Amino acid sequence: MTTVIAQEGASPVGPRPLETVARIASEVARVHADAVDREGRFPAEAIEALKRARLLGVLVPASLGGPGLGLDEVAAMCEALAHHCASTAMIFAMHHIQVACLVRHGQSSPLLRAYLTELNERQALIASVTSEVGVGGEMRASVTCVEQRDGRFTLDKDATTISYGEHADDLLATARRAPDAPRSDQVAVLLRKGDFTLERTSAWDTLGMRGTCSPGAKVRSSGPAEQVLPVPFADIASQTMVPVSHVLWSSVWLGIAAGAVGRARAFVRQQARAKPGTTPPTAVRLAEVHNQLQTLRASVHEVSSDAGRRMAAGDPEALSSIGFSLKMNNLKVSASQLVVDIVHRALLICGIQGYKNDSPFSLGRHLRDAHSAALMIGNDRILATNASLLLVLKDE
Amino acid sequence: MTEAIRNILKEHGRLSVDISTLTDAADLYQAGMTSHASVNVMLALEANFEIEFPDKFLRRSVFSSVSAISEAVDEIRAAR
Fold first, then answer.
1. What pLDDT is recorded for position A136?
2. Which terminus of chain B is less hemmed in, N or C, by CB atoms within 10 Å?
3. ipTM score of the complex?
4. Using CA atoms, how far apart are residues A189 and A152, in angstroms rounded to an integer?
5. What is the pTM of this model?
6. Shortest Cα–Cα distance, A170 to chain B (Å)
7. Average per-residue pLDDT for chain B
8. Interface of A with B in 65-124 (CB under 8 A)
């Protein structure tokens, strides 16, 4: 085994982080995926393995002691994890969405810079608190506000869902800027472990993505006022949170689809072995679904590298242009539909063996997880946004 | 021109405060304008001033205040 000796201040993440993630996916996440799903419990083993391999700080730039990997590398990691456990992959994706927001919008603040260094050192897991009772699923509106006095903030929020909130170290929450600010004038606030309490208000007994453990909760928090991010949440959302979410979520869905096609392929091979010399009829169906998987993969990779290039360019306008927003939104809608279609076709190939929960070709979990995709920021909401963007877009 | 812009904002900006209480430099987003409302503001400006906002003008900052909108309209007209 190779030992990587870290330089002073550098993160000792391994030399091939994607290979490490793929190994954790198959050796840890896969082993516990069925139990995580059945019991609706947090994938503690896989997240612990990711922490031990120091993979929670990979977006932290070298200037703050991290490895500073690119968005497409994290996207590939999300895909690899989702081959075996979509809940683990989605938690990993959601964590990196929060880290990306802090890396890209928090660095003018010494306190937030120090936090990012510490996040990488401690391998802290961050969850997001954007949802709220009373805003109807609109991320860009808040009811609650942050109050600042004598260098401290207080923030209390009644959230409808907080994914893995009870398992997270820290939280990133949205709120109105001040008591007299309108619903859309929001800021993001970092809430540190020990500075907040969560009081669960609902359960998380869902069809799929059961391991993300996302019940509603009342959050009560306070802390130093410097933990209020210095830029408007509108900019964070349009330049980072939305594009990074769509790229990483789509990568998770690509991984679910690839995992399902992998099971279908194994099933067809087994059939072929049973009758040597003949091609089983399911092989043609496999060719069809493999074709669709390639379409999905090409689309996710193209948009993810485009987003990565735009982020690396450091031009905020490049990320908030209408053309790019449409492209991102289209990726989310098409990937979330294709994943369901691909898993369904894989199920038809595996037949009863795919329908059974206790067979090696079982696809029930994949199918249930895939159906979350259209609901995470509902596709209808996204298409309505695109409809309005297309009213003003002139070029293509 | 700022009067026409103010009327359009009154009708389409969905501000949470009365536009007449805001200065030309006041931040419209902090006054409650959403990005969805800014699309309607832009369409109304295009109709009213018989202009088309090029894609590069479709930025949050262009619609951030009455004076920013006014400057943008001037610039688009000058480029014709």
1. 87
2. C
3. 0.77
4. 12
5. 0.92
6. 28
7. 92
8. none
Q: Give the integer Cα–Cα distance in Å for A157 and A173.
A: 9
Would you call A234 and B59 a contact, using CB atoms and an 8 Å cutoff?
Answer: no
SS3 A145: strand
Distance CA A265, CA A269 (A): 6
A298-355 tens-digit pLDDT: 999 999 999 989 988 877 778 878 889 999 999 999 999 999 999 999 999 999 999 9
Task: Single out the residue of B47, B13, B46, B44 nearest to residue B31, CA to CA.
Answer: B13
Instruction: Name every chain B residue with its beta carbon within 8 A of the beta carbon of A187.
Output: none
Contact B55 A140 (CB under 8 A): no
In terms of CA atoms, which chain B residue is nearest residue A386? B36
DSSP A338-352: HHHHHHHHHHHHHTH
| Cα distances (Å, whole numbers) of residue A165 to A22, A321, A388 | 25, 32, 34
DSSP B42: H
Do the Cβ atoms of A183 and B30 come within 8 Å? no
Going by DSSP bridges, is the β-strand pair A196-200/A217-224 parallel, antiparallel, or unpaired?
antiparallel
Predicted confidence band at A365 (pLDDT cuts at 50, 70, 90)? very high
Distance from CA of A97 to the nearest CA of B (A): 22
**Strand partners of residue A172:** A128, A190
**In the CATH hierarchy, which fold is given to the domain comprising B2-78?**
1.10.1200
Q: Residue A147: beta bridge partners?
A: A154
Whole-number Å distance between alpha carbons of A268 and A286: 8
pLDDT in tens, A72-97: 999 999 999 999 999 999 999 999 99
Outline where DSSP puts E strands in chain A: 126-129, 147-149, 152-159, 170-176, 186-191, 196-200, 217-224
- Is the Cβ pair B33, A184 closer than 8 Å? yes
List the single best residue of B43, B46, B55 to mutate versus A (max A Cβ within 10 A). B55
Contact assignment for A181 to B30 by CB distance below 8 Å: yes
Alpha carbons A53 and A122: distance in angstroms, whole number: 12
Neighbouring-strand partners of residue A190: A172
Give the A:B interface size as CB pairs under 8 Å: 52
Indicate the SS3 state at residue A149.
strand
Beta-carbon-side half-sphere exposure of residue A229 (alpha carbons within 13 Å): 28
pLDDT in the model for residue A282: 96
